[in-house]
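Summary for the steering committee. One of the milestones for this cycle was to obtain a three-dimensional model of the protein with magnesium ion bound, which we needed before selecting residues for the alanine scan. The sequence and ligand used are listed below.
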Amino acid sequence: MRTKSFLYQLQNELWNERIKILILGFLFIFQVLSSIISIFYMEEILKLFGFEFINPAPPTGEAAFLDYFTDQLIFGLLIMSLGTMNIFSGDIENGSICYSLTRPISRTNYSIAKLVARLTALILPFVVASLIGWVYMAMMFEVFPIERLFWSLVILVLLYAYLGTVTSALSTRVSALTAGLGAIALFIVQFSLSAFKPIELLSPFTYAAIWSDFLLGSSIALDEIFLGFALIGWILVPFIISIFSIKTRDL
Amino acid sequence: MSNVVQIENLSKNYGQIRALDDVILAIPEGSIFGYLGPNGAGKTTTMKILVGLLHYTGSVKIFDQEVRYNSVEINKRIGFLPDAEMPKNDSIHRFLSMTGKMNEIFNREKRIQEVLAELGLRKLRNRKIGNLSRGQRQRVGLANALLTDPQLLILDEPNSGLDPVARVRVLSLLKDLAKDGKSIIFSSHIIGEVDKIATDIAIIHRGRIIEQGTRKDLFKRYLSHGKYVLAGKVDREKALALDYVKSCDRDSLGRYIITTPGDIPEEQLLVDLIQKAGSKIKYFSSLEFSLENLFLESINGRLMEGEYA
Ligand SMILES: Nc1ncnc2c1ncn2[C@@H]1O[C@H](COP(=O)(O)OP(=O)(O)OP(=O)(O)O)[C@@H](O)[C@H]1O
Ligand SMILES: [Mg+2]
């Protein structure tokens, strides 16, 4: 009964996200393709319009990878915080949560269903688009070892999940606008923190960076790699806070 | 008869605002319980507590189970109509279907058809809730509450936004449900409607229950002393000094309501006595019992400065 109502809720939430999934799918594919185009074809395109384009360093797999990584991070920051800023506050403010929560479902299951559905809706299109883009790149240029691609995708997904869960946690208590802006502000602060030595540990971006260094083949101490796993903790904490916050608040 | 709902020492604060203050309520099984009170009195707050949407202090038992710990279980046997918006993007059918699935109701599609027909929504079945009129949305909310054929219905202003025909139909629907042994709690600002169907009544004002009982009880209590309404220039102090006058208050229409201990020998005598005590009476009559009078009077004695009156 409990799992059943959870599954119904999840199914319902995913259905509600269907348009988001489609739009984001196209958006991400467009974005992936555009970054491929800019890396590999820009020279030719510019030539087409009669520009003389002197590329100081011809594109390498590594450069493309880094480029892609940072592009995605900034794009994802916006998508994730804008995409989750109303996840709870929307239903709470207009009161429709009163209908959902008087059906036989616990607040915990309700929150988990919502979080899972929304995170899936935002992240799945990105994963699919990335795979499409990368397979294409790999076929065209044979520059990426496939397991490196896979792991970097995992890191990005984890970072996205972090961005989404933090915004969601805020959304359980404040308006969508405040949650969205607050989350973006927090991420910018954390992003800057990751540049400074002792406080860098307060930023999940540091852990992501450790992993990407590792993937790019820099030499990294073993304990640092383990530190990278802390990224999962950074997701779990706001996830649990969201559930707890919905559980304890008045609706 | 046992009580479906037993509320003891229920209090609720929203930050600094005390929305409910030591509420004690017992709602007998099979009753139609009319919950009255001015805007902001605490009706919605009470109902939300009953279905587990708000945290509270005190004890709230439904079907002999404490809501605080068992709200998911209890809610399976409750149909609730909140005073809130519905998910705009769902179609009516989808919305009801979700409630049906979660409650694992038997023969879901057939039951949905039934409630849709009952509330005159059959043709709108696939329309998006966001595009419906206010009254149509209210009907969807009612359909949703009725769908599981619950033992207890909790309806926050079920008739708001409905047209006159629908109002009458909903009232008779509720009456029929009570005949089948269901209990119903509903709030309303239309006293006439409460008067028509309620078997039990409570009046809440500023978070406190100020009147409560069966319709009969209230009727008896109200008439236990004589009540008269008079208009004119009344010297309140002097009138109150009379043996026959127990209380003398102005109501919101500017009239004076006088209560006497028990019945007086003759009405004219009272009029004469009050006139002699320095008042000029233009109009005098005994006050009949009506829920409306009871409501206005019990609220009126408690209005603070800056409120009506
Ligand atoms: N979420 C909230 N935050 C703060 N105060 C609230 C909240 N909800 C209700 N209140 C306050 O609690 C009191 C009771 O409100 P409630 O909604 O229960 O009144 P009501 O009897 O349903 O009124 P109405 O007849 O207007 O529907 C009011 O003073 C209201 O302002
Ligand atoms: Mg209300």
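Key point for the committee: Chain B has a mean pLDDT of 88.
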